[in-house]
Amino acid sequence: MNMQLRHSYARPEAPARTARAVEYDLLAKTTQRLRQAWAQRKQDFPALVAALSDNEQVWSAFAVDVADRENPLPSALRARLFYLYEFTAHHSRKVLDGDASPEVLADINMAVMRGLRGEVAGA
After folding, report:
1. Whole-angstrom Cα distance, residue 90 to residue 52?
2. Is 5 inside a domain boundary?
3. How many of the other CB atoms lie within 10 Å of CB of 20?
4. Tally of domains in the chain
5. What's this model's pTM, rounded to 2 decimal places?
6. Which helix (H) or strand (E) holds 17?
7. What are the b/e assignments for 50-63, b being 16+ CB within 10 Å?
8. Are 100 and 89 in contact (CB under 8 A)?
9. Which range marks the domain in which residue 24 is found?
10. pLDDT for 14-32, tens place per residue?
């Protein structure tokens, strides 16, 4: 048996990650890419397009999830999250047209990340 396989069998299983942790990490990486791509937009505009597209895909997945009637979140929160998806799509187009910066998108992601960590606004 090779060393890598032996090591794999010897390791205790990593604890399963929660959906919140996965969503948090996804938003953190997407937000970082948005900010980096914006800073480098003159040298690498395609990276900005890709970062905006990835951010929209994240929000599209959230929208599908919160539109599900079986979603356990309160309906008012689900509606606000769906609105953020719509805003993100609209604002991303403005960024691509050169009429806005993605900073508000990063701010929205950060606010949701705080919620995923259980932080209370203003705390």
Report:
1. 11
2. no
3. 13
4. 1
5. 0.81
6. none
7. ebbebbbebbeebb
8. no
9. 17-116
10. 567 788 899 999 999 999 9
